[in-house]
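Continuing from yesterday's entry. The apo prediction looked reasonable, so today I'm repeating it with NAP included to see how the binding region is handled. Same sequence as before; SMILES copied from the compound registry.
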Amino acid sequence: VSVPSVGIIGTGRIGAILLRAAMRHAPDVPLLLAGRNEAAVAALAAEIPALKRLPAEALAAQADLVLLAVPPDAYCRLAKDLAPHLRSDTVLVSLTNGIALADLGACVSCPVVKVIPTMAQTVGRGVSLVSAGPRAKPRHVERVRSFFGRISRPLLIDDGDSRAASNVAGSSLAIVAAFCRAFVRENAKKAVALDEAALTAAMAETLGALCALVEDGRSFEEIVEATATPGGVTAAALEVLARWPMTDMVEATFARQAAMVQQAGRTR
Ligand SMILES: NC(=O)c1ccc[n+]([C@@H]2O[C@H](COP(=O)([O-])OP(=O)(O)OC[C@H]3O[C@@H](n4cnc5c(N)ncnc54)[C@H](OP(=O)(O)O)[C@@H]3O)[C@@H](O)[C@H]2O)c1
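Holo prediction written out below.
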């Protein structure tokens, strides 16, 4: 049985992440790349010798999965250009929550599936969120899930849960990293002999340990309670953290996504 080929259009952050992830963790998957940025295409081709470079239309005609790694407001225009070249059984894969699946589906006649990947795929980890779009039959979703299963832990979700799930599985990578950076920097200001690099390494070890504890069955709550002695110093920090406007943060993501979807829909 031949391995379905994966074609990526776009050479920015997520396009490069997925190509590198496939090269490292799924080397038998045929990879195709198209991009308007010739220099970026050439650089990726030099890094990944097995990569086949071709124009977007030819990629659309050849690849079994066509992944759009471009900004959401470029989706409809690109999908319409590719539509005559996509085979009826090709799966067009949206990588963004910034366009409604129905709007993208209206631009093509092939099945559409959404996957929200993350940078964690570079190390073969992290959740990738998979949801069925227009015309996607179980076999199409399975083809997509099967590829992403090589480079991540795919989670099948209803598209209605895409923002909440993306916050927890994707955005959190940046949010937790930003928290860690700020926490380390603030402590580095107080440190006597330790520098920021040493504190960063300690922070990373703690993150790894947190992950291992959760995988071992401890809840976040249990870890908080076991670590913060009532009236102690950690408890003092947690009192400040409790004032964190978490609701505002989550609401901001939903509001931003709604605005992006509306904007991308207007490009149809
Ligand atoms: N970054 C992530 O971790 C992440 C995670 C999940 C999903 N996504 C989604 O992935 C998509 C790409 O994000 P990114 O972070 O990779 O963006 P990026 O780094 O800005 O890369 C965007 C790519 O799209 C190309 N492009 C821009 N406008 C285009 C157009 N009108 N027609 C054709 N190509 C165009 C760019 O080419 P040039 O180099 O010529 O500008 C570049 O190759 C977005 O829809 C985003 O929502 C990203």
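Comparison notes:
- Strands lie at 6-9, 31-34, 52-53, 65-68, 91-94, 112-116, 127-132, 153-156.
- The first helix runs from residue 13 to 25.
Will overlay with the apo model tomorrow.
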